[in-house]
Amino acid sequence: MTDPNPNIRPATPDEAAALAAVYRSAYRQNRDLGFPAKAEATTADEVADWIREYRVFVAKIDAGSIGEDIVGGVRLEATVSNRLKLSRLAVHADWQDEGIGSRLLSWVEAVAQAEGRDAIWLTTPEEHPFLPAFYRRHGYEKTGEYPLEYREYDEIVMEKRVSE
Fold first, then answer.
1. Helical segments of 3-99, H only
2. Domain-embedded: residue 47
3. What CATH number is given to the structural domain containing 113?
4. What Å distances lie between residue 70 and 11, 21, 28, CA to CA?
5. pLDDT tens profile 146-164
6. What is the distance between the alpha carbons of residues 119 and 16, in angstroms, rounded to a whole number?
7. Domain limits at 41?
8. 74 domain-assigned
9. pLDDT confidence band for 1 (50 / 70 / 90)
10. Which has more pLDDT, 151 or 44?
11. Which ranges of 15-156 does DSSP label H, i.e. alpha helix?
């Protein structure tokens, strides 16, 4: 698996089950690293609700004669101050380290720019072994703390300006 060229587009409710499987796969790894999240146990119904309530994008790759497989996803929501919140960025464990997460991130940044948004922000565990570094490599900077009362770890807020 090298350089898959994913087709990224808005998710549809009929893709919720496949996307939920991606989230369970991707977030299972976070649990193994000590950063459990609800997305590890997400259901198709929950993902379908996200698709109706927020903007959710899927990354699909050509799977030959069976069509396309969903290998990644990301969720965006409008927040205050002309910013978008990025959440639930995930790539199926079988497709990690293939550049799909980076392509999803670039996609939502282009969406934000096209809409004239100022910035994209997200939260991530500060002590995670690779997520903060991944976001830093893509131009995101730590802008604050995001304490979590219901978990054994806290998160940080990271943001990237996307306006010209």
1. 16-32, 44-53
2. yes
3. 3.40.630.30
4. 10, 9, 17
5. 767 766 777 889 999 998 6
6. 27
7. 7-120
8. yes
9. very low
10. 44
11. 16-32, 44-53, 100-114, 131-137
